[in-house]
Write a structure and sequence with these properties.
The chain has 3 domains: 80 residues, no CATH class; 105 residues; 118 residues, no CATH class. 50% of the residues lie in helices and 8% in strands. The chain contains 13 helices and 4 strands. Helix 6 packs across helix 7, helix 7 crosses helix 10 and helix 10 runs antiparallel to helix 11.
Length: 315
């Protein structure tokens, strides 16, 4: 009986945390409760009461037996720490890298808080290859994808972000924080207003790129630029200093990351959002420099001096 009850309680908790925070415990049809309907009702009622008081002080939870307070407190502390993880659902056949997954979920919560995004559910279907991902969509074959081994498919409908990951679970880029930034930003402001180079600069700063941290990217950038101090020309040319075309890193994006860092520090993140929303890149970047001048007092005339100061401060 004890084993059966513990399994039942575990399944009920799993159901709760898979579907996010709710006022009442939802019991899935596949969960077998106690044979006695009265006891089953009491069990669910007690769990609802326990969970309803879980956000308060552990010692004040009236559904915790005093003799088991230390042990239950440890459980409650863990539950409080994983509440936001109820907004992520992962479907997979092969084991996932739990460390990377936990970092990914925590970073998503950090980005959402920064961006002021309302809560929504993110579902992942982790496939072993792009072909498996296509089959998940009901597509047996498509000529356009010949030669591609990995790619991802996504959509956002009814407050659910659906992601089909056509990449092997062992690939370190499956939970890429750079792409995560883009995904979360697109739920905060219209894509049509986003300036891509600024967006990429934010992704470098907050999520790195190709497995490199912002610090590592900046170090490579400094080595690449050497004694070149003509930051405006470098920004306009926007050359790739990455290890290859595939693993590209662009000069303008690093400069934008430095500018974003300055704006956030001095004006707050609302000012960063204003900068990000200056509109798509235009020839001559008139909209970009108008926004940069208005927000940070930096324009084409003082760009070299301003960026040089930021580069030196970043050392």
């Amino acid at each position: 009986m004890i084993r059966h009850l513990s399994q039942t309680v575990s399944l009920l908790f799993l159901s709760l945390f898979c579907w996010g925070q709710t006022q009442h415990l939802t019991v899935p049809k596949y969960v077998r409760l106690l044979a006695d309907s009265v006891q089953s009702a009491q069990l669910v009622s007690s769990l609802n009461g326990f969970l309803g008081q879980a956000s308060g002080p552990n010692k004040d939870n009236t559904f915790v037996q005093p003799g088991y307070l230390p042990e239950t407190s440890a459980l409650l502390d863990e539950m409080k720490g994983i509440g936001n993880a109820g907004n992520f659902i992962f479907h997979y056949n092969n084991p996932l890298n739990e460390t990377a997954l936990n970092v990914y979920v925590k970073k998503a919560a950090e980005f959402d808080k920064k961006l002021g995004v309302k809560e929504y559910v993110t579902q992942f279907y982790c496939c072993n290859s792009m072909q498996e991902g296509l089959e998940m969509l009901g597509v047996d074959y498509k000529l356009d994808y010949n030669g591609y081994y990995s790619d991802n498919f996504s959509s956002f409908e009814d407050n659910i972000s659906l992601n089909i990951m056509g990449i092997n679970n062992s690939d370190p880029t499956i939970f890429d924080l750079h792409d995560l930034w883009h995904d979360r930003l697109h739920q905060a402001i219209p894509v049509s207003t986003i300036n891509k180079p600024i967006d990429e600069g934010c992704a470098y700063l907050y999520g790195g790129s190709w497995g490199l941290s912002w610090e590592e990217i900046f170090k490579q950038f400094k080595t690449y630029m050497g004694d070149n101090k003509d930051w405006l020309t470098a920004f306009n040319e926007n050359k790739n200093f990455g290890s290859s075309q595939r693993y590209h890193l662009y000069v303008a994006y690093v400069i934008d990351a430095l500018l974003v860092q300055k704006i956030e520090k001095e004006k707050g993140f609302d000012a960063v959002m204003e900068f990000l929303s200056c509109g798509k890149k235009q020839p001559g970047d008139e909209n970009y420099f108008a926004a940069l001048d208005r927000i940070a007092g930096i324009n084409a005339a003082n760009f070299n001096v301003s960026v040089e100061r930021l580069v030196e401060e970043e050392k």
